[in-house]
Predict the structure.
Amino acid sequence: MADRSTVIALPAARKAASRNPEKKRELALHALSSLAELGFAKTNLRDVAQRSGVSLGVIHYYFANKNELLVCSIGLYKEGFVRHAGSLIAAAPSPDALAASLADFMAQTVTAQAHLHRLWYDMRAQAQFDPAFQPGVEEAEQALIGIFRTLLAKLDALGGAQRNSETGDGDPLRLYLILDGWFRHFLQRQLAGDTQAAAKLRAQTLEEFARICR
């Protein structure tokens, strides 16, 4: 005979299994604009429902709470970001072309998607206080670090990677931390109204590439 905890868990398991993953994905992507515009703290699920054109009950059916919605939404956004960066790396015919392509991408995304990136940094900060965000942040950061692992492998294949044990220029984690720091800084400048922020980010990205390329 099943114990009480098993009996209680069965309806929840059946409900989760019946959910449409494509619908959940669609709702999470719709929620991104609301979360990015208003910020996590100022957004509630009712706002998301109204802006998405669905009932609050539908939102609650797919997401237990706002935290779960944010993690899912940011995860989907970062998934697309990583996929696009990976396609740029794969298509680059030379180290110089790779550097220019990714520097352009960094400059474009800090301008066109500043509020979405702000939301990511918001969740990353919240993860220091709320463990509910930690798995989502860890997964996204590992994917972002993976971009630099792919980047270094591509540079090796093109004959343009510089390996320096003293500076650690061949370490994907180090490159991620450096460029993420610059990106966050110029994102803050962009959001504060600095019209040169994107150009400065592009220049800084090229400078970092020059450090790791012969």
Q: What stands out?
A: The two ends are 69 Å apart (CA to CA).
